[in-house]
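Note on ligand handling. Small-molecule inputs were canonicalized before submission; formal charges were left as drawn, and no protonation-state enumeration was performed. Where a ligand contained multiple stereocentres, the stereochemistry in the source SMILES was retained. For pyridoxal-5'-phosphate, this procedure yielded the string shown in the input block below.
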Amino acid sequence: MDVHKGLILDETVKLHQDRQANGPFVPGTTEIWPAGAVLDERDRTALVEAALEMRIAAGPSSRKFESRFARALGLRKAHLVNSGSSANLLALTAFTSPLLEDRRLRRGDEVITVAAGFPTTVNPIIQNGLVPVFVDVELATYNTTAERVAAAIGPKTRAIMIAHALGNPFEVAEIAQLAEEHDLFLIEDNCDAVGSTYDGRATGTFGDITTVSFYPAHHLTMGEGGCVLTSNLALARIVESLRDWGRDCWCEPGETNKCLKRFQYQMGTLPEGYDHKYIFSHVGYNMKATDIQAALGLTQLDKLDDFCTARRRNWRRLRDGLDGVPHLVLPEATPRSDPSWFGFALTVDPDAPFSRAALVGFLEDRKIGTRRLFAGNLTRHPAYIGQEHRVVGELTNSDIIAEQTFWVGVYPALTDEMMDYVISSVKEFVGGRA
Ligand SMILES: Cc1ncc(COP(=O)(O)O)c(C=O)c1O
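Structure output:
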């Protein structure tokens, strides 16, 4: 390492240590955030080093991250992108590729999803001219069931795209089985559930394709970032093409003639030998991330197991501590799953002698951060009113979630002391009103 770089990185470590000087936890004063990035000195030096080397575009760190992350999740291919939302858009759009011939999704085809979720799990359906079919979820697990999905399958149904809610796996083995029986594609939005398992198997490995987000609230962060993963090599090629402007060529930017046939292709109505680097087989995007992001992803990835352990520990402490508190629906792991929790959801019983607003206000006044279960019921948001969709059954629980549910944090920076303060605060509030 050259001397200047060594000095800068040494100083970076010192700066990190200075900035880390956290005071003691002061209940009611110290913020208990619902989510956030957990960054140590290795993360900081990795970022600085990538910047010093001016690795400003996607390059070797991105490729290294992709191969390490795919291995960590037990899948063959990973494609790094600029957000979890982009990952979802690419994942679904991949199924519209002409390369899938008769199996491709076409305008008007239906995709089953849930109303109680994050918007960009559903938006790719609409953005591709497909029709979302909304089903309800259960309270406590906040996931839908195979039974509800089965009831929604109709003659136009071609795919299922659902997120594991707040890290809690949906009945993914059963839903994958349904998908197989009905010849449907299954897209697992695993943005909130990295490290979760169902039947002992990692979420994200059941469907045809899966997505991850690296926004700071998530299990691993790159600031902004996301990933599309699959073990289907044909799909992986389509995702890569869609991510990289729609190119047919698979040479990295800056790399030439990896295919050894750069000037020997004839595609479309182009002249023979048109440079393969500039042949476009998809109507694509540019959704690449940079090596600066990937450098952070690599150091974060080393800590994934510890992060998941901390999330489970915090969730368990809250769950045990709040057990038996009246008027609240406490969260439950889906049977046969081991969630790597994203958050701890609470639903105020509609008949409770207090409102969600009052409880949330009480907690927020104590610096205990709360969040809604994302959209609650997407069909009630201005963006979706008037969009073509189908609802199967009633969205009763999605409405209850919109009106009565919120979640508090379990992310790794939160300590036992903080969790105990959350527990005692909820108990104090409910105890005073029960
Ligand atoms: C389930 C789910 N899917 C997708 C996303 C989108 O990820 P991003 O914020 O990286 O675009 C989120 C974001 O939090 C999410 O919770």
